Amino acid sequence: MRKVIDFLRKFKEDESAVGVVELILILVVLIGLVVIFRDQLTTIIGTIFERIASDSAAI
Q: From CA 20, how far away is CA 25, in angstroms rounded?
């Protein structure tokens, strides 16, 4: 149990965890943008896949 407490104390004091927080914030922003523009992204992706399917049928 003591090893776990020491690990958690070192982890709390470690400044490299700041990078993890930044990464999580970036992911939250990206997920928010996807949710906001979901309909537009769905339309664009659908169009792209339709074009790929029609071009591959021509081959």
A: 9
The angle, 0 to 180 degrees and rounded to 10, between the axes of the packed helices 17-36 and 38-58 is: 80
Residues whose CB falls within 8 Å of the CB of residue 54, separated by 6 or more in sequence, listed in order: none
pTM: 0.52
- Tokens 């400044």 appear where? 15
Count the neighbouring beta carbons within 10 Å of the beta carbon of residue 41.
Answer: 13
DSSP 47: H
Q: How far apart are CA 22 and CA 50, in angstroms?
A: 37
What's the confidence (pLDDT) of residue 31? Answer: 96
Is the Cα torsion angle 8, 27, 38, 51 positive or negative in sign?
negative
